[in-house]
Amino acid sequence: MVDLIESLRGCDVELTVVMPCLNEAETVETCVRKALDCMRENGIEGEVVIADNGSTDGSQQLARDAGARVVHIAEKGYGNALIGGIRAARGKYVIMGDADDSYDFTGLLPFVEELRAGGELVMGNRFKGGIAPGAMPPLHRYLGNPVLSFVGRLFFPSAIGDFHCGLRGFRRDSILRLGLQTGGMEFASEMVVKATLQGLDVREVPTTLAPDGRSRPPHLRSWRDGWRHLRFLLLYSPRWLFFIPGLVLMTLGLVAGTALTFGPVYIGKLAFDVDTLVGASAMVVIGFQAALFALFTKVYAAEEGFLPEDRRVRKLVDIVTLEKGLVAGGLLALGGLVGLIASLAHWGGRGFGELIPAEVLRMVVPSATAFIMSFQTIFAALFISILGIRRSKETSIDIAASAAEEAAEAVTRTATRG
């Protein structure tokens, strides 16, 4: 509701350029003037908003003198500063960019044209537009950005080539509806991921990157912030975090376990026997648990609104009811019980004396694995049923109706007393 009200308060102008700022006295004035000159030259009605995150070097006054509007953002962090600036923006469209003079604020027109043509998120691509010598550290240029952008394209159905370009434009109302929450550098990834998952019209234009104009080191911390980006991408993709690794483990374990159940397997001079069978059993159990975690995460995230609902997962949950899960778990337990009875019979045939470990483990290990998976299945069915319990969500209409009823009751009580 807050984001909706803030969205309705916007749109006084066509474009707002939002720049997060923390002690950028050396460059903020230049950035503001470039953005305002670009809008003036191209007939764009707009403004520049400096989202100040607690500068102590006079950046605020320098920005005001250059023609910007300064808003103070108390919560520290790149993402917090940007979301505060976006909420304060009066434009229908917003273009965000760092106030360090590394991005070209004289080249905003391509972003505006794509937004006017229906784009909801327009990303800059520094690798297509050009990166000046010394503008990006080699670690970021050849490892960090390419790898994280590849992971983003792999995990999500996105064609964006530069996931972390700081110069990007978007419809203000569309981005506010995404409910962006991260307060740090991973805000850049969150915007692209959620926009993609929600089906926004995401586009890309070439842009350039120049060496920033500051004499101090940047706020970015390569390994810490790179990990935060990767962590976010993983947490928003249960399929790649849990399901695919789990499926691979479970498949390898099943193939190896099935082969070893009937006897040793020889590859050249290497012999794989019951020790490997135990390892294969562990792979099956771990893989099955990981696949269940993927299902849990998908259901929970959809119920809470973190991720859009996956129709395939919803269909699976509708088909695999609690009762069917209990039956499947019971059948697995029955299979495990049959195996254990067979192993006891084998022991009895030996007069309950000493056994050959290789023989008995080929019966016991698969049986124990089936027992473990039976309880995993039963507990999973119960847990998914709990996640599927629908909570009644009070809408604005419900709130208004309740208020009206309370007011009517108050009037009735007053009239009765009178």
Automatic annotation (TrEMBL):
Domain Glycosyltransferase 2-like intervals: 16-175
Family matches, as CDD domains: DPM_DPG-synthase_like
Keywords noted in UniProt: Membrane, Transmembrane, Transmembrane helix
Keyword Transmembrane helix applies: yes
Keyword match Transmembrane: yes
Transmembrane segment boundaries: 240-267, 279-301, 322-348, 368-389
Protein's name according to its UniProt entry: Dolichol-P-glucose synthetase
Family: Belongs to the glycosyltransferase 2 family.
Matches recorded under PANTHER family: RFBJ PROTEIN, UNDECAPRENYL-PHOSPHATE 4-DEOXY-4-FORMAMIDO-L-ARABINOSE TRANSFERASE-RELATED
Organism placement in taxonomy: Bacteria, Bacillati, Actinomycetota, Actinomycetes, Streptosporangiales
Species whose genome carries this gene: Acrocarpospora macrocephala
Database matches in Pfam families: Glycos_transf_2, GT2_TM_C
Record-annotated Low-salt glycan biosynthesis hexosyltransferase Agl6 C-terminal transmembrane region domain positions: 295-388
